[in-house]
Design brief:
single chain, Nitrilase/N-carbamoyl-D-aminoacid amidohydrolase, 312 residues
Length: 312
């Protein structure tokens, strides 16, 4: 176990719990709790768990039986980690397969403050549908917006996996005052992709999130799972690539986990660094908000000769 990191009023410690998941919810929750405890012992003030950490990644196939894994908020998982947050005086980001009502489910994350209070829920906004990532079958797109949570430690934004590719989401959370963006994640390779496109896909994933840090002058923390998982009823593997990491506001990777092993990653974030970066590169100051209206359209199908853009 690494030595504890020093604390100060101007910075805060974050922890990412990168883990392999089993078919047993209780064991996964035990592993996650142990990871939170280790992170706190190393001076983490905020700890983020990975996407859908309580189970294997069941979205590899479309099977209505997996809806049985969903739970309400508050529910057993959030209650357990609420007690833990209060015991350790730590902020915990807890991803949950949320049962909102019969037939209505979300891929969500709950932010729990140091007091054990549930500050609120973020529901994944962008839902993928791809080979072995059949999430549209399970999850309704989020409807709570891009929320920022004012915890006892820092103002944090939470986005989930596929959300990490969208600069609009990162920008909106920054404009709401986020100092750090957390991305609980479950991303990996199907066999043919790893062989042919693996390095490029990984670099694209890391690069896009580092770019959010740079463009917004914030810290970015992505926590991914590890291990090879095969869903019952399929004969195909999905290998998660781990490599959880933290980027500072200049896009420098200041901490990174292993590609294959479970690991608790802990590092510190500095408010002074945010301030200095935004003074030097004042992107928020120089935004031309009077010119961005077309971003709210689905696609610009054409531009007229006088330069006007379509309104829809």
């Amino acid at each position: 176990m690494s030595a504890a990191l020093p604390r100060s009023a101007e910075d805060f410690g974050i922890g990412l719990v990168q883990m392999a998941c089993s078919d047993v919810v209780s064991l996964n929750c035990d592993t996650a709790e142990a990871g939170v405890r280790e992170a706190v012992s190393r001076s983490a003030d905020i700890v983020c768990l990975q996407e859908l950490f309580a189970s294997r990644y069941f979205c590899q196939t479309e099977d209505a039986g997996y809806f049985d894994l969903a739970e309400e908020i508050p529910g057993p998982t959030t209650k357990r980690f609420s007690r833990l947050a209060r015991e350790l005086s730590v902020v915990i980001i807890v991803p949950v397969f949320e049962r909102r009502a019969a037939g209505l489910y979300h891929n969500s994350a709950v932010v729990i403050d140091t007091t054990g209070e549930l500050l609120g829920t973020y529901r994944k906004m962008h839902i993928p549908d791809d080979q072995q990532f059949f999430e549209k079958f399970y999850f309704t797109p989020g409807d709570l917006g891009y929320r920022v949570f004012d915890t006892q430690i820092a103002r944090i934004g939470v986005l989930i996996c596929w959300d990490q590719w969208y600069p609009e989401a990162a920008r909106l959370m920054t404009l709401a005052g986020a100092e750090i963006l957390f991305y609980p994640t479950a991303i990996g390779w199907i066999p043919e992709d790893r062989k042919n496109e693996g390095p490029a896909q990984y670099e694209a994933w890391r690069t896009i999130q580092r770019s959010h840090a740079i463009a917004n002058g914030v810290y970015v923390a992505a926590v991914n799972r590890v291990g090879v998982e095969q869903t019952a009823g399929t004969n195909r593997d999905l290998q998660f690539w781990g490599r959880s990491f933290v980027s500072d506001p200049q896009g420098r990777v200041i901490a990174e986990a292993d590609a294959e092993d479970a690991e608790v990653l802990v590092t510190r974030c500095s408010r002074e660094t945010i301030e200095e970066q935004r003074r030097g590169w004042p992107f928020l100051r120089d935004r031309r908000i009077d010119t961005y209206a077309p971003i709210a359209t689905r696609y610009l199908d054409g531009v007229s000769r006088n330069g006007n853009t379509p309104t829809q």
